[in-house]
Design a protein that fits this description.
single chain; four-stranded antiparallel sheet; 2 helices; 36% helix; 21% strand
């Protein structure tokens, strides 16, 4: 069972990522053919599971990272088409920028930022749960 404050943080983070998924789908959802086994956008209750993009936060404790612990911004394009590396990088960069600009609205009480960590983007900052 999750701590109630962790559960609330996770719900808010998921809402942020779902909003970013919607923006990416609106802008780029028709750019590549959808993987044959992937449901159409909106076919499931979780945007990570349908449409062209799967974008999700993956927590890492940051071993071997210059930026430390945080949430890696994981992005996958659900297609069998060849996605050129520069296009994939553009998708990742756009997702990171969208998350960066929305963090203050979703987490006004926290000091969070999006940073480049190697070849990925990561959300770092204050993940404390406060008083228990």
């Amino acid at each position: 069972m999750d701590h109630p404050k962790l559960a609330a943080f996770t719900r808010t983070l998921e809402a942020l990522f779902h909003e970013v998924d919607d923006v990416l789908e609106d802008r780029w959802g028709q750019s590549f053919s959808l993987h044959p086994n992937r449901p159409d956008r909106g076919a499931t209750c979780n945007p990570e599971m349908d449409g062209l993009f799967e974008i999700a936060p993956d927590f890492t404790i940051g071993i071997g990272s210059e930026k430390g612990r945080g949430y890696i911004i994981s992005l996958r394009v659900a297609t069998l088409d060849k996605v050129p590396p520069d296009q994939f990088e553009a998708f990742m960069t756009e997702a990171a920028l969208l998350i960066r600009e929305r963090l203050p609205r979703f987490f006004p009480e926290r000091d969070l930022e999006v940073v480049r960590d190697g070849n990925r983007f990561k959300i770092t900052g204050d993940f404390s749960l406060g008083e228990v």
